[in-house]
Amino acid sequence: MAKPLLIYLDGNLVPETEAKISVFDHGLLYGDGVFEGIRFYNGRVFRLTEHLNRLYESSKSILLNVPLTFEEMEKATLDTIAANGLRDGYIRLVITRGVGPLGLNPYQCPKASVFVIASSISLYPQEKYDCGLTMVTCATRRPTVAALSPQVKSLNYLNNVMAKIEAIQGGGEEGVMLNEQGYVAECTGDNLFLVKRGEVFTPPISAGGLDGITRRAAMDLLTEMGVRIHEVNMTRHDIFTADECFLTGTAAEVIAAVALDRRLIGDGKPGPLTQKLVAKFKALVNSTGTPVTYPV
Ligand code: PMP
């Protein structure tokens, strides 16, 4: 049996069997909380500051008082990785509104809870990176910006969960989520990019997708490669007629998508620009990041 993980929970590192949250925590009762997913490679955390910035912005947006300073959160993250002796993996940082009475009033929850899980992850098998993902257009729309901002990475992921169910039931691996106007927003856990005639296209963040940190990293790499990027509204038509499609996300990294609604995109194989970007992304994540200090 695998060694139990040590989980950071409100200031302590505890074995996973003891890392428990109350049934009265509003994170559980109402999805009232925020989270981040972060990767570390070769003992270095990728874009830690950007992830923590997004976590604190999500918290600020929902008026959630984070009981840790930015530096303390950074330390909790690095310490959790070190305590588990992990060199490559995934971190889940969660801040919940904390324990309160059954009513939804967050002002009756005196203290937010913070937990950090550092673990290994393999979202898709290698074969999917070699051959690409198939996608399905989801009936569930990405919520409008008039509802909770899509930039808040909240614990309420039910829209995306429903979209993922639709993708899988439709025979695909990822779901394309449209916004209320019918423009492509993003996938259920990734941002979407198209390649056409050597140029790259991606929906603007205002279309309702999350301002992905992998998205930004991919755009920086493409710019370095001299590729022009256009942030434009796009529809399914644009995906059907693209030469290549790829997705970006912390968990999925950079991965080709080769079909939508059973129609092949391009020739139905990961395209040359996507493959070049995947290689550049791998090199980047293995050579940068905040170092973890491991106990000797
Ligand atoms: N969109 C959604 C809905 C997500 O959950 C994620 C994963 N955080 C992304 C996009 C990709 O963002 P990032 O590259 O920061 O992981």
Relevant terms:
D-amino Acid Aminotransferase, Chain A, domain 2; 27% strand; single chain; 28% helix; D-amino Acid Aminotransferase, Chain A, domain 1; 296 residues; 9-stranded mixed beta sheet; alpha+beta; 2 domains; globular; 16 strands; binds 4'-deoxy-4'-aminopyridoxal-5'-phosphate
Can you offer a commentary on this structure?
There is one protein chain. By secondary structure, the chain is an alpha+beta fold. It folds into two domains: 114 residues, D-amino Acid Aminotransferase, Chain A, domain 1, CATH 3.30.470; 159 residues, D-amino Acid Aminotransferase, Chain A, domain 2. The protein is 28% helix and 27% strand. The chain contains eight helices and 16 strands. Strands 7, 8, 9, 10, 11, 12, 13, 14 and 15 form a nine-stranded mixed sheet that branches. A seven-stranded antiparallel sheet has the order 2-1-6-5-3-4-16. It is globular. It starts with 5 loop residues before the first strand and ends in a 5-residue tail after the last strand. The mean pLDDT is 97.
Rg is 19 Å
Mean pLDDT: 97
Morphology: globular
Tell me the distance between the termini: 25 Å
How much helicity do the residues have? Answer: 25-40%
Catalogue the ligands. 4'-deoxy-4'-aminopyridoxal-5'-phosphate
State the total count of DSSP E strands: 16
**Hey, roughly how much beta strand do the residues contain?**
25-35%
CATH superfamily of the largest domain: D-amino Acid Aminotransferase, subunit A, domain 2
Report on the biggest sheet. Answer: 9 strands, mixed
CATH class of the largest domain: Alpha Beta
Q: How many distinct folded domains?
A: 2
Judged by helices, strands and strand pairing, the structural class is alpha+beta
The arrangement of helices and strands along the chain is EEHEEHHEEHEHEEEEHEHEEEHE
For the record, the CATH architecture of the largest domain stands as Alpha-Beta Barrel
Predict the CATH topology of the largest domain. Answer: D-amino Acid Aminotransferase, Chain A, domain 2
Query: Count of DSSP helices?
Result: 8
